[in-house]
Automatic annotation (TrEMBL):
Source species, domain of life: Bacteria
UniProt xrefs under Gene3D superfamilies: Chloramphenicol acetyltransferase-like domain
Source organism phylogeny: Bacteria, Bacillati, Actinomycetota, Actinomycetes, Mycobacteriales
InterPro entries documented for this protein: CAT-like_dom_sf
Stated name of the protein: Condensation domain protein
Length: 116
């Protein structure tokens, strides 16, 4: 376990003092439009490669007297593949995005970096 970086300290502080419906200055949600067939396995492999190169993007914060970050030797970003189909795709996307914005406030036991 390593001491938190200043950015991680800010993340932890704001996550513990901000309500789920408030704006979070650290939460960044990106949306990409992909045309053509998507190969989820290749996308997942690409994300895993990025996390292996930059493990500090995927720490697990553990509450102790002095906050520490556990940087696993073989970090893995949590992954969820959502297939959208049928009517109301825009509404389905908005629902998934809203759920992810709320989930960013739970930093204990899971990394803040969560590709979805």
């Amino acid at each position: 376990m390593l001491p938190l970086t200043p950015l991680q300290q800010g993340l932890l502080f704001h996550a513990s003092t901000t309500q789920a419906n408030d704006d979070d200055v650290y939460a960044v949600q990106l949306e990409f439009t992909i045309t053509g067939p998507l190969e989820p396995q290749r996308l997942r492999a690409a994300v895993d490669t990025v996390i292996k190169r930059h493990p500090t993007w995927c720490p697990i914060l553990r509450p102790v007297r002095r906050a520490r970050a556990d940087h696993p030797a073989d970090p893995v970003a949590p992954w969820r593949y959502v297939e959208l189909d049928g009517d109301g795709i825009d509404e389905q996307i908005q629902h998934v995005c809203a759920a992810e914005r709320v989930a960013v406030y739970n930093l204990t036991g899971q990394p803040a970096f969560r590709p979805r």
